[in-house]
Amino acid sequence: MRTWQQPENLQKLFAERDITKNKEIVVHCRTGREASHVYFTLKHILGYPRVRLYRGSWVEWSADKTLRVKTGMEP
Questions:
Q1: How many CA atoms lie within 13 A of 16 on its CB side?
Q2: N or C: where does the chain have the smaller number of CB atoms within 10 Å of the terminal CB?
Q3: What are 38-54's pLDDT values in tens digits?
């Protein structure tokens, strides 16, 4: 059986990446599938108040040629 890690461990992992409760967070991935797990974890396990899921994710964004895309290692 697979389960979530303890909330304290998850909170530490997100905090180490500067993902905190005081920020608005939009999660996304290639199709929305993996991001839905992150959304559930932040919203329902850790109680982050301002979390949204970009359901279209990369597939939708990259299909729209009017939207900007940046490549490379620098954010």
A1: 6
A2: N
A3: 999 999 999 999 999 98
